[in-house]
Amino acid sequence: MLCPNLFFLLYCYLLLFFSDVQFPGAIAQRSSVYLEHGAHRLGKRRDAAMEQWRIYGLGQFIHWGVYAIAGGHWNGKYYSGAAEWLRSWNEMPKADYDNLYKQFDAKNFNATAWSKQAKAMGARYMIFTTKHHDGFCLWPSKYTDYTITASPYKKDIVKQVIDAYSKEGIDVYLYFSIIDWNHPGYRTSLKTEAEKKAYEDFKTFTANQLKELLTLYPKTKGFWFDGIWDAAWVQQAGFTDSLEMELRAVNPGLIIGSRFRADEYGRRHFDSNGDLMGDYEQGWERKLPKTIEDVHGNDWDCVMTVPENQWGYHSEWKGHVKSSVELIEMMARSVSMGGNFVLNFGPDGKGAIRPEETKLTKEIGDWAQVNNEAVYNAGYAGLDKQDWGYITKSRKTGNYYLVVFNVPVNKALRLKLLPGMGIKKLYDLENSSISFDTEEIAKDAKGSGYFIYLKETPSQPKVIVLETTDKENKSAVEYQKAKT
Ligand code: FHN
How many A from CA of 177 to the centre of ligand 1? Predict the structure, then answer.
C-alpha cells in the first residue's frame, strides 16, 4: 500500500502525461500552516473540463429515492422537515422506512422525458442523487443489497439518467451522500475501538462504491458530495485525501467540489490556510453570496430548492414557494458573480415531476429561450452591482448583459460603468432592432454614469445588450462639480 504522499506524487506524474488537466505539480503549501492534506492547488483549475463547468450557468438537481414514496407523511402524520430526512423523524419506525424500497416501482419514471424537460428549461448540467443519507442506491451496487435491484422496479436508474441526459447534451454529476444510515459501520463519531473498527468497513465500502460508480458510468463529469460534516468523517483527512486522488486518477478531469474532505485540523471547504479544498466552493446551499467579495475569486455553485427546504418529494409544500421570476433572478445573480445556479427537483414516488416544477421549467425555459446568452457562457462583468438588476459578461464576445428586474417609476435605469467606459451600442436581446435612449449623466475618475430610458415596464426580466466603447470615449458631460 502506497503512503498518501507517494500516491499523490505518482498521481500528479500520471496526470501530467495522460490528461489535459492542469493539476498542480505539488501540494500547494503556504508558509503559515504546514498541511499534508490541505488544498491541492491555489487559484482556479484551468483545464477544459473545468472551463466547461464554468460556463454552464444553469443546472438541475434531482433528489429522488424511496423517501419520495412517503412524500413527507407517515401514518397520516405530516412531517415538517425535509422529506428526504423522513427516516430520522422520531415518529418514523426505522424498519418501516427500510422496507419502503419494496414499494419502489417507478411506473412513471421516464429519463428521456426528464432530460428533455431539463433541456427545454435551459439546464446545461444536472446532479443526480445516486444515494442519499438513507443509503438506498439507485444503481445496482455490488457492495450492498439495499439497491434498486431489490425493488420491484429493478432497473438501473442511474444509468438511464446518465444516458438520457448525456444524449441531450446535459453533463451529469453524481450526488453521493457520505452519511449512510443503512450501513452497519456508519458512525457519526468514533468514541470506542469497536466503533473505529466498524468505521474501517464503512470507509472501504464508501471507497468501493465511489470507484464502482466511476467504472460503471464513465460519462460522469464529477461528484457532488454531501453529508460530510460528521466528526467521524472529518477525522479521516489522510484517507479522504488519498481517495480523492484515486477517484481523479480513475476519471481524469473529474470535478469535485469543496464538500468531500477535511484537512488534518478538521477544516472543511477551506483548509487551515484558507485555501479552497476542491475544484469549486460548494457552500452556497439555499443562499447566495451578497457581493463578489464573498466568493473570494473561487468558482462556486448555488443549489436551491423551490419551496423553503424540501429536496425530496413532499406532497405538501408549506411556506413560501419561489416563482420563476425569483428563480431567474437568483440565476442571473449567481452568474453575475461567476457562479452556477442549480435548481432542485423532487420527483414523486412513481417518478413523475410534480406539476409545480413542470410549470417552472416551462416559464424559466421560455425566458431562457430568448435570453440564454445572458447566463450561458457568461460570468462576472467586473462592474458594480446596479439597483435595477445584474450585469453579466459574455465570455465569448465580451458584450455585457443588463438583466433588468426592478424598473423605477420613471423607467430610467441608472447605469454605472468603470472610468473611461462608454456606451457604443445598447439593444434589446430579444429584438436587436430595439434600441434605447440614453443620457450621459456623469463622467469622472470614479466612473461614468448613464440613464437608460425604457419605453415601457417589462412584464418579464428584460435583458439589454451593452457594447462598450474603448477608453478614449469623449464625454458629452461638461460641467463643473460644486465644491462641497
Ligand atoms: O441533508 C442534505 C439535504 O437533504 C439535501 O440533500 C441537501 C442538498 O444540498 N444537502 C444536505 C444538507 O446540506
Answer: 9
